[in-house]
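Hi V.,

You were right to ask for the full record rather than a summary. Here it is.
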Amino acid sequence: MKTLEDDLSRRHAQKLYRERLVLESPQGVEVHVGETWLLSFCSNDYLGLANDPRVIAAFQQGAQRYGVGAGASHLVSGHSRAHHALEEELADFVGAERALLFSTGYMANLGALSALTDRNDAIFEDRLNHASLIDAARLARAKVTRFPHADINRLASMLAHAPRPKLITTDAVFSMDGDIAPLAEFSDLAAKHNMRLLVDDAHGFGVLGKNGRGTLEHLDLPLAPPVILMGTLGKALGVFGAFVAGEEALIETLIQRARTYIYTTALPPAVAEAVRASLRIVREEGWRRERLRALVAHFRAGAERLGLALLPSPTPIQPVVLDSAEAALRASQRLREQGILVPAIRPPTVPEGSARLRITFSAAHEEAHVDRLLEALSSVRI
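Predicted structure:
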């Protein structure tokens, strides 16, 4: 009989074994790992807010006022004034009637899909969707059909012959490729077939759009039916948590039916206070997004001069795709030997044959940091 040890050995042999880094420092441009400081290009802290003094102060003040735990679920006694205020501010920011807090983006997607569909419905999802959307569709027990990545024509053909199509799900910014979904076309198809479109904007919220409202703003799309927005608060906003935003009836339905909302303890109110502070910074400091765009442009120009094959990503996610897990691991290790932290992303996170270096940028980076990365990449055989 195959044992757990056998499976772990196989993962080692296939260069798919995953190991954790133990950080001795906060998130930042430089992180302390073991005895070494490394220049980091692997965090989703896109705006550099995870260690911002104003956000930390809001967290501390929130803990002093509300304590360190919510104590119960939102529907028992865990819904604080801080939670309520954050929901109202998020709804206002993204232009929705209501917003609902969840503990994580994973729980938000699981809760929304299970609340909005049943075993008789059909869910259509992009083949490169995040694992949370894939798992959410499975757990909803609906009929799930995956369409080729961003393939509008194929999706349209599938929908034309589908019984009870109910929901299209897609990442807005795909977390491993950095490309942007064709949301306008998806929205048109959803409206045509009387469906909803759930947009997971974990990697666009706070980053894209003139005001940082996310991919919908970037594409000049309104947040109104058929669109449902899910955003996370632990990436660009640098804190923790997630939300779903939409019309009044949608949010009330999730409060009544989303099991990952009903049956779990609420976020600590201090976390909500920290997010509120971060959201104010996102509103007021547009220079962070401008710097981020400039850094990405600088990197892409330098990578082109080096002959690196980059995917067509306009976002802070800039993957360098290699031919094998072993090649990705080797390149990541050689960068680390030069004091630079870039992870090797391997199957099953990405498809077989597309292991990669996933490079991400933060507004806290400087142009000199990008130049140092480019210099290191030039000495790594890719």
